[in-house]
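Hey team,

Filing this mostly as a record. A colleague (T.K.) asked me to run one chain through the structure pipeline before their review meeting, and I want the input and output archived in the tracker in case anyone asks later how it was produced. No errors, nothing strange. Just documentation.

Input sequence:
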Amino acid sequence: MKLKITNSWSDDDLLHYLVVSPILGKNIYNLEDVADSECDEIYCNILEKMPISAVASTITNYTKKLRHGGKIIFEGTDFIQTCLAVINRSTTIFDANNIIYGGPESWNLNASMICASDISAVLTQLGLKITKRALYGS
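Output structure:
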């Protein structure tokens, strides 16, 4: 099974993924509707919508849902990269605020910011091998 944890999806996503979304009233923290070791792939792009205090335990819960050899993909804004973009003047303070705080819709507001290195640290502590890491500019 392929699982997508998101606040936005397309019709194509529904063909390829089981979509779990807070907009649909689903629990995105522990994935109680998904059995352990059931997923070949988990894709998540809403870590920054969660309180920072919940991120590490949520990642731990997600990894329990992975089959042996499965992969987990996190997509989001790296806070350090956003700050560097402001310092290097490759983005404006206005744009950085939109990146950091999100938009006005209830599930588009960011509850926290996290860095790729923080996610990597949690995954490494869980004994998972990181096979690919990519950082993109803001």
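Quick notes for T.K.: The chain has a mean pLDDT of 87. Residues 116 and 124 are 12 Å apart (CA to CA).
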